[in-house]
Amino acid sequence: MTDKKFRLNIIDILILLVLAVAVAVLAYIFVFSDDTIIEGERHTVEYVVEVNSVNKDAFLNSIAEGDIITLEDNRNKYVGTVSKQPQILDCYKAGYSNEENKEVYTLAEDLIDLVITFTAEAEHDEWGYCISDSVYIPVNSSINLMIGDFRCTAFCVRNTVLD
């Protein structure tokens, strides 16, 4: 019976090095990069909502930074504060053209779309971020809001946890 000596060559060293790097990366991912949000924690959440087909003449400058937002059906329910000047967009209406045999979009001269950004203190729970103990505003949902004298149905397009 012959005894073979174990020799370490360059390929063995490369394999060991790759394995060590893989273990280090996995350890970092599972141990050090835990960004878990704990239920019950309060966070500042930035919401971006869109309000479509607003009368341009009546409501062009009706919303300003710092305005308080409440629910339309319960004005005691504080929702948040406007954090940026609203973005004003052109409003387009969809229609169907029989001559062109396709859907066409025309500019509505007397209407605008508003993009409103506001912040709110929300508590994280099992269903998401809760404002004022009962208000949830998930992305792709609509909510009836009051901003000063302006009443609207807003559609949430984005929410971001700021802290």
Q: Which series of helices and strands comes N to C?
A: HEHEEEEEEEE
Shape: elongated
- Give the spatial strand order of the biggest sheet: 1-5-3-2-8-9
Q: Spans with pLDDT under 50 lasting ≥5 residues? A: none
How would you summarize this macromolecular structure in one to three sentences?
With about 160 residues, this protein is an alpha+beta fold. It is about 15% helix and about 50% strand.
Please tell me about this protein's structure.
With 163 residues, this protein is an alpha+beta fold. Helices cover 17% and strands 50% of the residues. It contains two helices and nine strands, in the order αβαββββββββ. It has helices spanning 10-32, 56-59, and strands spanning 42-55, 68-71, 78-82, 87-97, 102-125, 128-131, 135-136, 142-147, 150-161. A six-stranded antiparallel beta barrel has the order 1-5-3-2-8-9. The longest helix has 23 residues, at 10-32.
Keywords:
163 residues; alpha+beta; six-stranded antiparallel β-barrel; 17% helix
Secondary structure topology:
Layout: H1 10-32, E1 42-55, H2 56-59, E2 68-71, E3 78-82, E4 87-97, E5 102-125, E6 128-131, E7 135-136, E8 142-147, E9 150-161
